[in-house]
Target: ATP phosphoribosyltransferase
Amino acid sequence: MLRIAVPNKGSLSESAADMLREAGYRGRRDSKELVLTDAANDVEFFFLRPRDIAVYVGSGTLDVGITGRDLLLDSGSPAVEVMALGFAASTFRFAARPGVASSVQDIDGKRVATSYAGLVQSHLADHGVGAQVVRLDGAVETAITLGVADVIADVVETGTTLRNQGLETFGEPILRSEAVLITREHNGSAQPAVDVLCRRLQGVLTARSYVMMDYDVRVELVEQACALTPGLESPTVSPLHDKGYVAVRSMVPRHLTNRVMDELYELGARAILVTDIAACRL
Ligand SMILES: Nc1ncnc2c1ncn2[C@@H]1O[C@H](COP(=O)(O)OP(=O)(O)OP(=O)(O)O)[C@@H](O)[C@H]1O
Ligand SMILES: O=P(O)(O)OC[C@H]1O[C@H](OP(=O)(O)OP(=O)(O)O)[C@H](O)[C@@H]1O
Ligand SMILES: [Mg+2]
Model:
C-alpha cells in the first residue's frame, strides 16, 4: 500500500486535498482525521504538518508527500522533488525597512529573522555573507518592528503583509516556490505505485490547464482553422452531413480560450463550443 503524506493545515492543505480528490482518491470527512485508508486505490494518507513531510519522506517512513519546495529545501532532507503541482506559488525573499539594504551583501553583520533558517543560512553561505539568523515560528514581518531583527526572509505572495509592516523586498528572490510532490531517489518496490500517482496528478494538471473546443468550419478553411487550434498532437477532423463543412475537436490552453474563439469566429467557424476536461491521461 502506497503511503502518502498530505498537509493537514495551512496554505497547502485545501488545494492538496482538492487535487487528490480530482485525481480519484478518497478525501477525509473531518479535518481532525490524521490517517485515512483508501483501500480501493491501495493507498494510505497521513495528514501531517507540511514542514515535517520532507522529514518523513526523506527518512523512508512514508513513500511520497506533498509539501512546499521552500520547506523541502529548508529541511535538508534527502527527499527529491518529482513534480511541481501548480498551486501555492510564492517567492522567498529578503525584506527590510526602505534604505536598510539593497543586496544580499548588505546583510553582512546584521540580524535576519526567518522561519526558514536552513534555507537562509545556506543562501548566505553561498554568497559569503555572515549574519546572525534569528529563528522564529511565524509572523516574522513583525520582528523588525519589535527590534529583534534588521532584515527578514519570508514567503511573499501578494506582498501585502510586507507593505502593511512598512517593509520592502530587496535583492534577487532567494527561491521561487510552489507545492511539489516529493519522494526518495530510489523507491524500490513502491515505484510502480508512485508512477500511477504521478500520472493521476499530471492528469489533473492537464485537465485544469486545457479545455476541449469543438467547432464547425467550411472544408476549404480547415487548414487555417487547425493552425489556430493545433491541439497537443493533432486535431480530430470529422465529416459532417453537409459535405461543405467539417467538425473539428481540439484541446486548447484554457487561458487562450476566448482569444482562440474570437479568431476562429473571424475565420468563419461557427457552433464553437467549449467544455471542461474532467480527467485525462496523455
Ligand atoms: N501566502 C502564501 N501564498 C502562497 N504560499 C504560501 C503562503 N503562505 C505560505 N505558503 C506556503 O505554504 C507552505 C507553508 O505551509 P505551512 O502550513 O507550514 O505554513 P502556513 O501556510 O503559513 O500555515 P500557518 O501559518 O497557518 O502555520 C510553504 O510552502 C509556503 O511557501
Ligand atoms: O505576500 P502575502 O500575500 O502577504 O503573503 C505572505 C504571507 O503569508 C504567509 O503568512 P501566514 O498568514 O501564513 O502567517 P505566518 O507568517 O504566521 O505563517 C507568509 O508567511 C507571509 O507572511
Ligand atoms: Mg504561515
About this structure: The CA atoms of residues 111 and 150 lie 5 Å apart. The chain has nine helices and 15 strands.
